[in-house]
Amino acid sequence: MSDQPGASSTLIGIPKEAVDGELRVAMTPAALGPLLKGGVRVVIESGAGQAAGFADAAYTDKGAAIGTRDEVFAADVLAAVRAPEGADRERVRAGQVVVSMAAPLADPETAQAFADRGATLFALEMVPRTTRAQAMDVLSSQANVAGYKAVLLAASNLPKMYPLLTTAAGTIAPAKVLIIGAGVAGLSAIATARRLGSVVEAYDVRPAVKEEVQSLGARFVELPLETGQEGSGSGAYAQQLSEETLKKQQELLAKTVAASDVVITTAQVQGKKAPVIVTSEMVAQMAPGSVIVDLAAEQGGNCEPTVAGQTTDVGGVKVIGPVNLPATIPTHASLMYAKNVANFLQLMVADGHVNPEVDDDIVRETMVTRGGQVVHPRVREALGQESLAAPAAPAEPEPADTTEEVAG
Ligand code: NAD
Questions:
Q1: 320-345, pLDDT tens digit by residue?
Q2: Could you list the active site residues?
Q3: CB contact set of 397 (below 8 Å; sequence gap of 6+)
């Protein structure tokens, strides 16, 4: 390890990701600057950035040290893309801070495992979708990449081209692309499909996104559905629809789905199983050769026949259920992820030390474990654990005896 200033300051370790196919890295040379300015030290596992296009020398040029996996895991703070698994998790020790994605609502047992090891786990998926937290929102930055790649995946599986072409050999009609769910991934998919020259339609249960859809050059599909508050939810997230409304939605969308060459589904309700919007019957109505890319595959899928991680042929229609698309564009996905991580860590850095006790709502909302227990209320709920007692209020001073003897 190279000698960095202030050997007593907090050491942040960046491991090489161990999960198969995970080519991203949690820190890039570009994101190091502001972190190091805070006086902390950073050690990167040798080769950690290689697959994403960042050589060891690029990190040392910016002031980080290169170390072994043991040195990285011995650091005070571990910052990773994925929460360490298996033997790596066994190395996590009491008091160590881990900052990574950990899917604590879908997989609360992992959170419990970190609590059992006494570590302080921050799950970056829990960063709230607020204006101040935007620069740390890994779900948004990575969904942006996924939306882009979903369109390319569909294009490479489609036996047609996307744009309108007028040639001496005849006119080629543009492909019709339907995007269901116009959140972060959906809007990125709309923009990409438009850039490639297709005719794009988009649907979302939140009417508020209509203007954004139109500003990207797509037609907003309006359904006569009374979703109102039911769909809108709070902040940038939708709420779950009732079974009845969902059924109505399927019926109303069937024609648009059948007329599309490509359907990209991105509908999600945070922390819930993905709603099934495209049924097997709807897929059967599509022309052979059509393609569906279901970005919600890992959450159960928006499309009934979707199998996560596989392409299923349903009567000549390809139903693709990709997982971890951001890792297929590791350079840019890492650039954004690392910036999110650096911005997040900076909330806690003062005088060369990372202080997880800092009073900040973003830090509070992402903290999943602390002091041997799961502390996040929603994760505790997912584990069937009772909510923790609110921190004891400071003891009230004994009321002073104000009764005065009234002279009789
Ligand atoms: P988001 O919350 O920003 O957007 C989801 C959208 O779905 C919202 O606009 C919401 O209003 C809409 N929606 C919810 N229920 C609906 C319904 N019944 N009908 C129509 N629209 C509905 O989420 P995001 O960040 O864009 O992510 C979208 C999906 O993509 C998630 O499931 C996410 O896990 C997934 N994703 C997959 C990959 C991958 O590699 N496969 C990568 C990143 C994200």
A1: 999 999 999 999 999 999 999 999 99
A2: 129, 134, 137, 140, 237
A3: none
